[in-house]
Amino acid sequence: DVQMTQSPSTLSASVGDRVTITCRASQDIYTWLAWYQQKPGKAPNLLIYKTSALESGVPSRFSGSRSGTEFTLTISSLQPDDFATYYCHQYNSYSTYSFGQGTKLEI
Amino acid sequence: EGQLEESGGAPVQPGGSLRLSCAASGFSLSDYWMGWVRQAPGKGLEWVANLKQDGGEEYYVDSVKGRFTISRDNTRNSLHLQMRRLRVDDTAVYFCARLGFNSLGAFDIWGQGTTVPVSS
Question: Under 8 Å CB-to-CB from B58, ≥6 apart: which residues?
Fold first, then answer.
């Protein structure tokens, strides 16, 4: 099974900052990586799929990239609405999906 | 664009059974792979199961294999999760989610979740 190691677990930042969150896959998942944002008491919301494709309606300050088995979510200029928990998700095969442990982005 | 709404969550004792349902609206369930994801209190997301459009392929995380069964009724636009031999560590909010076309398999629509507390 593919293990996803996400870091950091907590990230403190300020409005206007540029932040990056990283996920490393235990094996090659090609570009089958998504990122979600989750706010307390709510369902996750898809931000990025296939490593770098922005879901419809998601602001362009969110971007994704890949280097081998390491994937990065970047928020170019933090807005107040961005403080939430973020998860990476590998979906290389329908038979075995998995998520990273999550990154709580706090002020 | 489409919505999902889960139901069926309720307190249950260890060893008990429960059936969750997920009603889809605004799209045809029969066109999509569907899945269940859970989240234990204060913890991260855990994928539970996926099911193909025609029900011909189903996959599970190891911890629920042999205990949980994912199924669908495309005529009623509904998805189900039958849970048996429940354990305390199955306590979680259970989300149903759609594997999107445009997202090429990422979960693009989620329900609001239904809570399953397993406790004696």
Answer: B49, B50, B51, B52, B69, B70
